[in-house]
Structures are given as structure tokens and as C-alpha cells.
From TrEMBL, chain A:
UniProt keyword annotations, A-Z: Annexin, Calcium, Calcium/phospholipid-binding, Metal-binding, Repeat
GO molecular function, one term: calcium-dependent phospholipid binding
Coiled coil residues, start to end: none
Family matches, as Gene3D superfamilies: Annexin
Protein name according to UniProt: Annexin D4
Cited InterPro entries: Annexin, Annexin_repeat, Annexin_sf, AnnexinD_plant
UniProtKB/TrEMBL annotation, chain B:
GO biological process annotation, one example: response to heat
UniProt-recorded name of the protein: Annexin
SUPFAM superfamilies xrefs: Annexin
GO cellular component, as recorded: cytoplasm; plasma membrane
Pfam families registered for this protein in UniProt: Annexin (PF00191)
Family matches, as SMART domains: ANX
Source organism, top-level taxon: Eukaryota
Annotated GO MF terms: calcium ion binding; calcium-dependent phospholipid binding; phosphatidylserine binding
Domain notes: A pair of annexin repeats may form one binding site for calcium and phospholipid.
PROSITE patterns in the cross-refs: ANNEXIN_1 (PS00223), ANNEXIN_2 (PS51897)
Binding site for Ca(2+): G98, G100, E140, I326, G330, A368, D370, T371
Family note: Belongs to the annexin family.
Amino acid sequence: MADLEALIKAFSGIGVDENSLISILANSNHEHKKSLRKGYSKFFIEDENGFERLHQSTIKNLKLEFKRFRDAVVLSLLHPWERDARLIEKAMKKGPRHYSVIVEIACTRSSNELLGARKAYHSLFDHSIEEDLASHIKGSERKLLVALVSAYRYEGPKVNDDVAKSEAEILSNAIKNADKRKPIEDEDAIMILSTRSKPHLQAVYEHYNKICGKTITEDLEAEGILKDTVECLCTPATYFTRVLDAALTVDADEESKKALTRVIVTQKELREKEGYVPNKIQGILTGSYKDFILGLVARGEN
Amino acid sequence: MATLIAPDHPSAVEDAEALQKACKGICIDILQLDHAIIQKTLLNNEKDLIKKLSEKWLKRGSLETQRENSPKQMATIDVPHQVSFLEDAEALRKACQGWGTDEKAIISVLGHRNAAQRKQIRLAYEELYQEDLIKRLESELSGDFEKAVYRWVLDPADRDAVLANVAIKKISPDHHVVIEISCTRSPEELLAVRRAYQARYKHSLEEDVAAHTKGDIRKLLVALVSAFRYDGEEINTRLANSEANILHDAIKDKAFNHEEVVRILSTRSKMQLMATFNRYRDDQGTTITKKLLGESGDEFLVALRTAVRCFNDPKKYFEKVLRNSIKGIGTDEDALTRVIVTRAEKDLKEIKDLYHKRNSMPLEQVVAKDTSGDYKAFLLTLLGKED
């Protein structure tokens, strides 16, 4: 039935196709809807008491998809400082699997943007970010995360190449000694990554490559947010491409989809490959959510 | 029936820049002027504009004097009601011209101006003589007097940045100066110091601290300078209780859980810390600073104690620094200058009173005995002593 196919399609992307839903369901009578439910086996099962019941998980997922446009709008409306403060607070509360969001914000914002987020956090939550992170996070990520959000990095181009080289060696040693001590808890590594300027860290990245023959991100593959840290600081374009790639797939998980909204709303430049992002968006996103995201990408600045 | 033709969306900044170009040599920092004055004088000729601007300079000088003096009851410097930055700049120029230097004139001007006024004087001097007043003073003066005047003339945030840099770059870094700055300044002031530090030294404060220290002390200092504490009054008593216990356990064990101590001291708001220290004292029957006494060889312990004392009672802390700088043989001019210059516009009066109570002698008397010449005259002026 054409309507059934259209209904399934309306719920098949990231977001929901509101217009299709209106045209299919608004005029749908009781019998018509019954036949839709009977045909939509992915969403409805025959209940023993004689009605077509909606899967519990479907309710949850539908709520998420309907919310997606709303969340994107609110996120894009907020002042960047409030936005980042709220994102950090949420990520902290949700737990270790979400700490990469904290890394993303702390490491890809400018020094003054991060400072602004810290001020907004004061206003919103009556605490400093660092005190909440430090008391909330008990695991090995704590030191690195607190240090990263506390940074007020120098933003000039000046780099001391000798220092960059020796710090590349320090990082290399920290990674080599991973069996004795987790690199994410290595004090020297944390100091380097949380206090040095981004141009300096890019020089460190180059030296590491020369010294070890591999990029530091390759060597940190197994190190979770430590890898994210280095990527965000030294090669942010690679980081964002990776996040978008993970989101723009058919079986992306909820966190990846949320990342899609977050990255597109917060990043001003997504020019990795000409037309890459808009094409993929057309194929996978749907409804008002798709239109909004396409609009953000097309405009190129927030 | 008004005849004024004014644009729909005037930009005060653009107007100011245009006016500045038009009045080169007289106008110094028009961007600080009232939009209202600029609008009003747009239709008048240049002479009127200049007249209004000089009036504005005078008014602003006295306005700022009033604004500065009323909340700062505890400042010691004595600032006149009417100030002309142009005249001050001229007076300083005169003092530096010719063969010698008129140090008394320098002291009598700069020693009686607050931070905002000193900034305007520097701008006026630059505009009038195309020269940096600070560089001129550096070349004319010498010794402890020069160091004191140099620090005094800088903006407070810039001054703290210089003090921090000097402390860090020593062979054996002065940890207590870094701790003093990070713990006694307000969160906004500390941010201003970090910005000023970057502008001056092309590095962040935290990266230089990290590069010049090691071990636990490094962790503590970097965390303290990086803090942007919540500035509110709220206290969580349950939290104060639990963190007082954490501190107690950490100190008792002596096998310090440094991580927790650093966490608490470097992230909590100042009000929360005070509540925690008070709770500690109530629970343990003795203050946390007393408990931290002992191993003076353990630099981490010493640093912790300094930090706690700075949070708990900064005036008492500064009184002790002063007392130590002038007692016994020899004087620690760096410490003496640092405390007087950084607190003269804040709470030096209370510190003086504390000193007097504790030592049964006024601070001015001891400073006069222990120092000499222009350096002495300058310090006494900052201490509020009548000439």
C-alpha cells in the first residue's frame, strides 16, 4: 500500500518527515489506520488481547526523532557560552561514554569562547566547571578533563621548536610506558596537552610523526578521550569528519546522531569535501530537521 | 522644529575615531568619551570641541577620584579631588628633563594617583611626547626606587603578570608569590592577570608555571593559576563537612592524598573554602594552618599552608610577609615593595593596623628605619604618610 510505504519512509531517516505524516495520517480514518498498523510489522505487533500494539522501544525512538528538530533549534538559538556550558554539564552527568563532548568543547573552542562557557556555567549552575568535573568524575579521566576546561591558551603563532621536539619525546615515552602507567594519567602529558598553545601542539604533532614514524593519534587509538584530545587540538578537521561520518550512516546510534546536531550547529566551517556533507544529509536526514541542518550548512556561518 | 540632521544608526565608535583623526595632538583617548558629548559637538567647530574635551578630562579625573575613593576606605594612598592628566604628564616630563631627575616631583605626582588615573597619565604622556612614560622612568631611575615605581605605574593586572613572571623565572622559583597572586585576587582579577601575562610574554601563565616547576608543587600551582572560581556567597554545609574530613584525612596520613587536597583548594569557591576551614577547626579543635605547620623542608606542605592562609585571612598573611621582610638584619625589598605596591589601593590600611597591633609600632616607623632615600620616600607616600 502506497500509504504504508510512505509512512515507513517518513519514520526511516534521522528526524521525521512531518509533511508526509500530515498528509498520510490527518485524514486517515479508523479502518485506514488499522491497516497501516497491521502492515507496519517493525513498529506494531499483534497483541494477544486483539489489538496492534506499538513496540516499547519504538515509542522511545520516535520521541527522540521528533525531538531532534526541536533540540537543533534550541541549541542554535542559545548564546554559544550557554550552549557550551549546558553541553558540558549534560555530558558530565551522563557519564564516561559522553566525556568526549567535554573534550570537544574544551579543545575546539577559542580561549575566549571557553572562558565564556566557564562564565555561563557560573550563572547557570552556581559552581565552576572545574569544581563540578573534579568532584563528579572519579575515574582516570578526571585530571585531564579538569585541566582541559581550565586552560586559557596563548593564541599567538610563536612556537619554540626545540621545546616542541622534546615534548613530542615526552609524549612518546608516556605512550610507550602504557603498561606501567595509563598515558591519560601521565602528569607530563597532561601538562603539555592542557597548557601549550595549539600552534605549539601542532608542532609537537609533527615532531612525534618524525620521531615515531606514526601519527600520535594512531598510537593513541586505544586511549579513548586522550586520542580525542590530541585530535581536537592538532587536527580538528579530522575529528569532525570522523564524528560526522559516524553520524551519517543508516545504523548510527543515538549518541552519534546527537553529535550530528551538535557539530553542525556549533562548527562554523565544515568544508572537508565540497558537497560531501549536503549530499549525505539529503540521503539520510528527513523532515524539518533535514531542512534546518541543510540551512545551517548552506549558510556556512552561525 | 529641530534642524539637526543625524544618521539613523550612529556608531559611537566610528564617530570617536573620526573625531580623533580630526583633533590629533589634543585628544588622547576619545573612545572613552561620552557618546553624548560627541553627538552634541558634531555641529560645533573644532575649538568648541577641544574646550569640551579638556573640561571632560578634568571632570573625569575628579569623577574617577570620587568613585575610586568611596568604596576603597582601606586604601592608603592619598588622592586629590581634582586631577589634570595633561598637567601631571607635563610635571613628570619636567622632572625627567635635564641632567638630574627630580625624584620628589615623580613621587609627589605618581604617589598620589590611583590606577585609573595613572593609566590616563601614561596615555597623556604618550600623546604629548611620543614616548612611553614607563620606559622613560626606567632609564631615569635606578635601584629599589626604580623597581617600586615601575611596579606602581603598571596596570594592576600587568603588574601581577610581571611579578608572577619574575617569581617563576628565578633559579629557585618563588612559589609563594604565584600562590599569593592566584589566591588573593578575585576570579575576574586573576583572569585579567592571565590575559596580561599572555600579552606580555607570549605564553600562557599556566604553561610557564608548568615548565618551571615539577612534581606535586607543579600540580598545585598550575591548578591554582588556572582556576576561575565561582564568585557567589552560597555555601553547601554538607559539602564543607565532607571536604573538611577529606582534608583532615589527607593531612593526618602525611602520605598525602595530594590529588584531593589540590582538587579542593583549586576548584572550590572562596566562600565554600572558608566554610570548609571553619568546619575543620570546629571538628579538630585546631586550625588547619596549625596542623600544616612542621616540615619546612616539604615544599608542597609549605605551599599548601600559604594557599590556605591566603584564603583564610589575606590581610593577616600580608602583615606577616611585611613583618618578615623588615625584621632582623637586612630587608627583603622585593617583598616589601610587592606588598605595599599591590595593597596600597586595596587594604593596606587594615594591614597597617594589624601590624601596629602585633608589633606595637607603626609600620611607617619601621619602614623609615629600614629603608632610605627616594625608595623610602616613595614607600612612605604609598603608606599614606603626609609629606
